[in-house]
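A note from the maintainers: we've had questions about how concatenated examples are separated. There is no special marker in the raw files; a new sequence line simply starts the next protein. For clarity in this README we add a label.
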Amino acid sequence: MTEVLNTPIAETLADWLVGADVSKLQPQTIDMCRRIALDVTGLCIAARKEDYVLATLAAAGPGDATAIGHARGFDPFSAALINGTAAHGEDYDDTFEGGPVHSGAVIIPAAMAIGEMEQISGERLLLATAYGSELLCRLSLVTPKAIHKAGFHPTAVIGAMAAAGAVSVALNLNKQQTVSALGIAGSMASGIIEYLAEGTWTKRMHAGWAAQSGMRAALMARGGFLGPRTVFEGSHGFFHAFAPSRKPAYNFLLDDLGARWVIDDIIFKPYACGTMTQPFIDCAIQLAQQGVKAQDIVSISCPVGEGTVHRLWEPLAVKHNPQTPYAAKFSTPFCMAIGFLDGKAGLSQFDEAHIKDPAARALAAKISYVIDPNDPYPDQFIGALKATLSNGEVREIKQGYMRGGPQAPMSLQELETKFIDNAIYGGWSNGEAEAARVLVSHLFETKDSTSLRQLRI
């Protein structure tokens, strides 16, 4: 590592980004990029009429860029903000073990917006998606848990850096410009996790804010604005600022860069809620499928990773009684209760009726946690429960993986079904949804980005 650090990390990354070429992408990586674009587009449609998206429109300016599912055009930065906010708003977007981070909701809005602005080819959009997503996921491995510990949202702060890298690739910037783009983005990165206190909306905008910040950084760099070369490792750099409690492990960022693509292991969520909660929902559903009734349950105890507690389990009394549908998405007890009672935890499960359901609240109140020092979080997302029943019986269920990832991948058909369901949830007809699915599936094969205008409905 000493030899690597003799060269500023931003310069090493810039060499890799400047060398972006489709020939360096394996077929599975290209396929993953297509899936990410499809999933993000469906989520933008699903959320297009949600109150937080409509509120974001109030801050948007007019222009020629597309906010998916909206008839009028916006300036490119506003389009990136709207699309990123919609894509991440329901917490139904892709995730990456080791971060956790959500790359698609940052990179796709940035790539689409700059693509329309500059009339970039589909191939260049593919490269921006692949390299930007890879950078985001690799950066999340450098200081696992430490960014959250410092009170920041990894997707937000890392996302700004990765979006700058993605847009640099899209614009075909040279090495000096790319280094500056990364350096500039370091001063644009932001996003605290205080939304957890009351279930308010700020996390929802983090991906979109990161996307538009990365765009601005890359465009300023193209114009000649200079950013620090030591933005990552400097004594006042990114990881010092956002992850001060942990020594950065830059080998996870730089080893095999360009030879191995970690984005091949990105996970697509089966449930519309917090990432680490998902295996626990599977366990709760399995318990219900065994014939156990809610009234038969005395208590449920879940072994968990210590790093998840402050976001998903505490304060426990608050998690048992979330005050908003958004807050419910980050309560493992409540998500488990919904999954147990409904057999699913999709978009329709997180509404006012469900969070006020006495049965859901009563069951959630029976669910608690114990910290398991051997839990592999954040390297792997697992779930388990021990249910004590009124007849004295104890049922234990374990799941050693998160569905939708390498151990239990979501098939293309399942992902396409999710897309259609999301589009219909957002008010589109089956015909409109199918036309959008076909368009996005071929997005990386287009000569320019004008086809995105067909998503303005």
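[label: protein 2]
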Amino acid sequence: MGRIIVFTGKGGVGKTSVAAASAVRGAADGLNTLLVSADMAHNLGDIFQTKAGGSIRKIRENLSILELDPYRLMKEEFPAVNRALSRLMDTGSSRGIGEDTMLPGFEDLFSLLKIKSLYESGLYDLILVDCAPTGETLSLLKLAEMLTWYMEKFFPVGKMAVRIMKPVAKQKYHVTLPDREAMDETEKMHAELVKLDALLKDRTVSSVRLVCIPEKMVVEETKRSAMYLNLYDYQVDGVYINRILPEHTGSSFMDRWSGIQKEYLKELEEVFADVPVTRIPWYPREIRGEDAVDHLCRDVMREEDLFRVRCAESGDWYEKTKDGYALHVKAPGMTAEEVQVRLHDLDLDIHVRNYTRRIPLPYSLKGCSLEETAVRGGELVAAFSVPDNGGDAK
């Protein structure tokens, strides 16, 4: 079984350097390793000082790099997916969506599908993904779940509507509805989305590692990112704190900064007490070129089993209670004041600041009532009472 590790963090904290050093370590361990850039501002080629691009390039034994190009992926590897999306939304007008046009907002979908395809190929023991800054990474990771939810909720209704309305839509409303082939392609796409979402949340395969520096704004964003990732049921199993100054620099100015960093280092290690935290010194030169990456790897990537699955417990689980069930959602750092929870039939909406996760509830909770919510011990707990005919939550 292969392994997927996603590296993310605030812009400019050294994500690519840490991902690259991890890749070098993986290759040295004899793992066939692929380092993938999912950030549109690619810099794998810069850090290794070699030519990269939209094709896989081997740069040393057991190590290859790839900079993802969503438009190229759409055209060359996933035309059926784009065709399904385009035909589903095509009204038949002269200004309809062409199959060579990428729908806005779907760039991430093709990057995710490529990562899934690479994993399923079985060619790589280790796939490391250098992602964009955290906000974009969260958008990337939650896309599969969001699209799957929409498909499951609306596609069956839409399919029935197309079947009923198609005979009259063109003649009466001058609208061409998707044909059977388009609907079949959409169903196949839905099946791929389900597999993709399952892969990203498979805690025996996939995890996220955060990269940060000991500065106030970065520390706060890192804590929020961990909370959001756990909210969406992605496991965070590593934190790298980059650019740490030595305690005694010989400069009163730098020593004051070292003292400030010490406070934030303590805070980060307390927040992530149950996650491996790695400290990385501030080097006198930038990490650029294979020699520099090798040096970083030797200094920092020394953990014996660096790529093991470190946290295998699911973030979402149900507990049987006296009156029904309680759903536990792991979300360290969340406070009761910032979370809003609403129940809509069999969907539970959890809104925290500017992010919302919609969790489909098991059918056995049909007709349930949301009795109360609480935040305790790094978890959001939602308690439901169920009708007398309620079954077991699954």
